Amino acid sequence: MTICSDMKVGVIRTALILFLLLCSNAFAQTVSEAQRRAKDCNGGNFLACAVLGFMYDNGEGVRQDDSRALQLFGKACDLKDEDGCKNYAILKNRGVR
After folding, report:
1. What is the pLDDT of residue 96?
2. Please, are residues 77 and 85 in contact by the beta-carbon 8 Å criterion?
3. Nearest-CA neighbor of 41 among 27, 56, 26, 28?
4. Which residue from 48, 57, 56 is spatially nearest to 81, judged by alpha carbons?
């Protein structure tokens, strides 16, 4: 290999390592966000329930789970959140149990 090709390989390797570190950090932040939202939801925070429902509905930071999303939107609805009620109805209309 020439010096230029060695440098290109080194730059690509460094870029790949930085990308992987950023992705793993973003995933860890999303997981900790889900944990915070779950704690807040259990404490009666309707917005936390709705956001966590969205995360489960879309598989963002958590494993996608329509049934869990339905439960969380239902809890948000019980706490008088209009959007939680709307999202609960959408999932029910999709046949989610």
Report:
1. 96
2. yes
3. 56
4. 48
DSSP class of residue 43 equals T
- Helices H / strands E in the chain, number of each: 4, 0
Structure tokens at 61: 């930071």
- Of the CA atoms within 13 Å of residue 62, those in its CB half-sphere come to 20
CA atoms within a 13 Å half-sphere pointing along the CA-CB vector of 74: 10
Buried/exposed 74-84: b ≥16 CB within 10 Å, e otherwise: bbbbebebebb
Structure tokens at 26: 């973003």
pTM: 0.70
State how far the Cα of 87 lies from the Cα of 54, in Å rounded to an integer: 9
Ramachandran bin of 2, using left for φ above 0, alpha for ψ from -120 to 50, beta for the remaining angles: beta
Q: What is the pLDDT of residue 77?
A: 95
Predicted pLDDT of residue 26: 59
